[in-house]
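Morning. Coffee machine broken again, so started the prediction first thing and wrote up yesterday's gels while waiting. Chain of 344 residues, entered below exactly as on the submission form.
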Amino acid sequence: MRALQYRTIGAPPEVVEIDTPEPGPGQIRLKVTAAGLCHSDEFVMTLPEEQYIYGLPLTLGHEGAGVVEKLGAGVVGVEVGDSVAVYGPWGCGLCHACAQGKENYCLRAAELGIAPPGLGAPGALAEYLIVDDVRHLVPLGDLDPVESVSLTDAGLTPYHAIMSSLSALVPGSTAVVIGAGGLGHVGVQILRAVSAAMIVVLDVDREKLRLATEVGAHHVVPSNSDAPAFIRELTKGRGADAVFDFVGVQATLDIARESVVANGVIQIVGIGGGVLPTGFFSTPFGASVRAPYWGSRSELMEVLDLARTGQIRVHTERFDLEHAPEAYERLRAGTILGRAVVVP
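Came back before lunch.
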């Protein structure tokens, strides 16, 4: 089968021919119908050799959807031909977090050598994908896999961050979204669906600000050093009740710190490498700072239900597998509007 693999530290990924995998006991083989690209992949591929821990060659793609094509021994709960999405943050399935469906916070995954597809295990940017357990499949039903595959991360991650901040998003509150890219433009739609907050979106790209307005932002403003003053003025000096930073570089974290109200919340979702000191004389009194990771299995089900009712939709650009390296180049350059999706 064909697959897109990261094979050499510092080199671009390559489309290669590899053996089609066979499902072992308890495993499921999917014929991949769609796979999403993410800045996390770019982060992984820019790591120096001494920090890279994901193994080589690595088949990329941690956002996956497919049709069940072959079942390993003992698999029950899905049938050949089912259209499914893949829940990516695989855990042990047995610890306290996993028992709640929060495998994104499994405490034993690293110890047991369990890694997500595309982030250690072979990923979805291939013609076929092995899923380790049926619990990591969520039915898509009549949802279009190409339109929906990015919801497994670009929908689930902002949903998890927003739902854990819901107590701050009461009527009259203000939510700031920094970065209107793949996750941010979905985050705006989730905020509109689950809260009554006024939504202010920051970005450095005019097209992304235009997209943010189209999907529900109440106000858009360039992401620069003037943004905190704009937010303070808009909120009559109060500041933002919740700030969701989908970029995570130092400059955006500084904006978040300067914009949040006392007792507000900052969610650092982007992995841009910035660091935000907290405490007296840094963040406002009572403000909390979180670095959420992905989301739970039940939250993915809820995200897909929002898509079924038409309340969220991912803006996608489609590529075939041969052009996936080009898609990564455009992702690195910041010229993808919304999310890049590969259709093998």
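The first helix runs from residue 39 to 45. Going to sketch it on the whiteboard this afternoon.
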